[in-house]
Design brief:
binds 2'-deoxycytidine-5'-monophosphate, globular, alpha/beta, five-stranded parallel sheet, 9 helices, Rossmann fold, single chain
Length: 225
Amino acid sequence: MIAAAVRQIAIAVDGPASSGKGTVARRVANRLGFQLVDTGAMYRTVALAALRADVDLNDAAAVEQIARGIRFRFAFNGGDLTVEADGEDVTEVIRDQPVGAAASIVATHAGVRTALLGLQRALGAGGGVVMDGRDIGTVVLPSAELKVYLDASLDARAERRWRQLPDGDFEQVRAELAERDRRDTSRAIAPLACADEAVRIDTTGIGVESVVEFIVTLAKARQAR
Ligand code: DC
């Protein structure tokens, strides 16, 4: 018997901070045996390098130069993604809250986005990939076979984030998230947006596994087409 060819599709997962897209993208990639590409990790790595070099985050030219100089390496072994920058494992340190806030600032610079775009497209080119970010369905992989936009109310997202912080203040967490939303959706270049053809999923009150199951079902249907 000859098995039907399964297409190596690209899956774009976009959505605001703490919408659950990172966890969902990782599990979907795992289930399908696809490569995971976390584009937020790239912006976070640029932000980390800028912070360490004591560069003004609003200095577009200086931050672009930093972005262009970083050699990234991603390893996705089953459940976990490891991010390396110039040989250093930055997987953990880029998750720090100040790095996330700085990432949202460096991501507003056109030169920084262009510097990372080529790498992101190259990683997505062959298909068999789940890529998550803010502009994957709209800018990075506009011809992705499946586009998903994950959303949840500000309160639900703030609560998720707050539960991860041992001694965080809920109101402060919520205010920081609102500010990140404002910056990510209002920037001039490649703002966070839901692509017209994206499947929009509101994850407020829905467990991760149900969302993963739904996306895997959609992906298998697209692969079989
Ligand atoms: O998904 P994240 O929280 O790791 O992303 C960190 C920041 O990077 C986010 O505030 C906006 C930016 N980002 C972006 O502008 N475009 C992407 N494709 C991914 C992330």
